[in-house]
Specification:
Elements (H helix, E strand, L loop, with lengths): L8 E2 L1 H6 L17 H4 L6 E2 L10 E9 L9 E9 L8 E6 L1 E2 L4 H8 L4 H4 L2 E6 L15 H7 L9 H22 L8 H15 L4 E6 L1 H12 L4 E7 L8 H22 L4 H17 L2 E2 L5 E2 L1 H9 L8 H12 L4 H10 L11 H12 L6 H14 L4 H10 L23 E8 L6 H10 L4 E9 L9 H13 L7 E3 L1
Parallel strand pairs: 5-7, 5-8, 8-9, 9-12, 12-13, 13-14
Antiparallel strand pairs: 1-6, 2-3, 3-4, 4-7, 10-11
Helix pairs in contact: 7-8, 9-10, 9-16, 10-11, 11-13, 12-13, 15-16
Length: 494
């Protein structure tokens, strides 16, 4: 990424293996579409260029309108992947979105299959690259060389010159996105993707949409339920995004969530969270003044250091990696934190970067109407710092730079998710979730409406709950998806 990224709300397991528009309330489906869309036959065949194991996985391309206001106009291709149900009594397709926005479902779905093996017995596992992502017109806004060069930019500027450099880089990144995406830049919103999902439902031959959304995928699920309440089948939203949060509110939520996770990590190492955070803050301040050397020859900047701290907070199993990296950094070697930051930024040993954060930015900047100014952010920084002494400054400044001078206007202040008349939607929140604090599940339940949102809470650690070691959570989700058994609202798994 060219600058300090908003931390991607994408499933942690996928990160370690390698934040919107609403719309008008919908009725029974995507009506008035030409048969060239609804009656298209998918040419399922061998997957190319993916990590899909064996012959169980098939790939195809779905044709969808570039502009949903003109469904009989220009089309784009959406890359799909599936594995057919491997048992009897098939229910239908189960669509997955793993978050981001910007995560590739085509590449992530096979690696998640073992986690949902019980569900695979009765569902076809299906995922896709949303528009602007991966094989679905994936947008690359900047070259590898330019991304690496921009790593030296201070994203918590300390003076006028650093502030100008930060904002100039943000504007340049947006121009690069516009050049790369062309007309697609204005048609990659969450609402556009929700409409793609309903077309997918029809082409796959499903009466209703069965869906498993994780992290940002929960926002997508909420928007889908709002647009097509009568088409909601069995829907699980895990690691739930707060749909009431605007741009600044989302950043505050992440500051709260990551500081909570860091505090839990520090307690696990026998440290007082307040003192441990102070020690890390002092380390970051030293790195801001003088970046650390690494074994690769590159320098660990303050931005890369914070990114390296963030990544292992997504999964409790990665906490020992954070301990080792912090110890090395205190000793003057930034190699450990740089390796973690490179993993987050999808940088391989040859210096090639992935584009998840590029897609994340083009989608979220089209979704979000707000464009906080540097002046307004400076007034908010004390509040951000109070929420999180380690991450507050970074997430506060991020609200000013993320969509600065963006080439297209944002659509709304926050997603609209009200879905009266929809089937029950199971919302799973994790009290130790760093990227999507568990309070978001209750906010989503309230937003979906009475009788629709059903909240299940897990007192655990890491981003997401299903498949993270809780038999209670896994059993409840499986019973709902396989048998339609809805747990009591407010159930807690400890």
């Amino acid at each position: 990424m060219s600058r300090f990224p908003r931390w991607t709300a994408v499933i942690a397991a996928a990160l370690l293996v390698a934040g919107c528009g609403g719309g008008s309330s919908g009725g029974g489906g995507t009506t008035g579409l030409p048969a060239s869309l609804t009656a298209q036959k998918l040419d399922w065949g061998r997957c190319k260029g993916t990590s899909a194991p064996g012959g169980d996985w098939q790939c195809a391309t779905l044709k969808a309108p570039l502009d949903w206001a003109k469904p009989d106009g220009e089309t784009i291709g959406l890359a799909l992947i599936r594995s057919r149900a491997d048992g009897g009594d098939r229910i239908g397709s189960l669509l997955f979105n793993f978050g981001g926005p910007g995560g590739s479902g085509v590449s992530m779905m096979p690696s998640f299959a073992s986690t949902v093996s019980t569900l695979h017995q009765r569902y076809d596992l299906v995922s896709w690259d949303p528009r602007g992502v991966g094989a679905s017109g994936g947008i690359r806004c900047r070259s590898d060389q330019a991304i690496q060069a921009a790593e030296s930019i201070d994203v918590t500027p300390d003076d006028t010159a650093e502030e100008k450099a930060y904002l100039d880089d943000a504007a340049a990144f947006g121009k690069g996105c516009a050049k790369a995406a062309g007309r697609l830049l204005g048609h990659v919103s969450t609402t556009d993707t929700a409409r793609d999902m309903d077309l997918m439902r029809q082409v796959l031959g499903d009466r209703t949409t069965h869906y498993f959304g994780i992290s940002y995928g929960t926002e997508l699920g909420g928007v889908y339920a709002h647009l097509f309440p009568k088409n909601v089948g069995r829907m699980v939203l895990d690691a739930v995004v707060d749909p009431t949060a605007d741009t600044v509110g989302h950043a505050k939520n992440q500051a709260l969530g990551f500081q909570r996770a860091l505090d839990d990590y520090l307690r696990s190492t026998g440290q007082d969270p307040k003192q441990g955070s102070k020690k890390i803050t002092e380390l970051l301040r030293r790195i801001d003044t003088k970046p650390l050397p690494t074994s690769s020859g590159r320098q660990l900047t303050q931005t890369l250091a914070v990114t390296g701290i963030v990544l292992p907070l997504y999964s409790k199993q990665s906490w020992p990696m954070l301990t080792s990296a912090l110890q090395s950094a205190e000793a003057g070697d930034g190699s450990g934190l740089l390796t973690l930051a490179d993993d987050y930024n999808e940088r391989d040993p040859s210096g090639h970067y992935g584009t998840t954060t590029h897609a994340q930015r083009v989608i979220s900047c089209l979704d979000d109407r707000q464009r906080p100014t540097p002046e307004s952010v400076k007034k908010l920084l004390p509040e951000f710092e109070k929420i999180s002494p380690v991450f507050g400054d970074f997430l506060g400044w991020d609200t000013a730079g993320w969509c600065h001078d963006w080439p297209v206007a944002g659509r709304s202040d926050h997603p609209v998710v009200s879905a009266p008349g929809a089937a029950p939607v199971l919302l799973v929140g994790n009290t130790g979730d760093p990227a999507t604090p568990y309070e978001g599940a209750r906010k989503m339940a309230d937003g979906l409406g009475k009788g629709v949102g059903v909240e299940l809470t897990w007192k655990g650690e890491g981003h997401g709950a299903y498949g993270n070691g809780s038999t209670c959570v896994d059993s409840a989700v499986n019973a709902y998806l396989l048998n339609g058994t809805v747990p009591k609202d407010g159930t807690v798994c400890s």
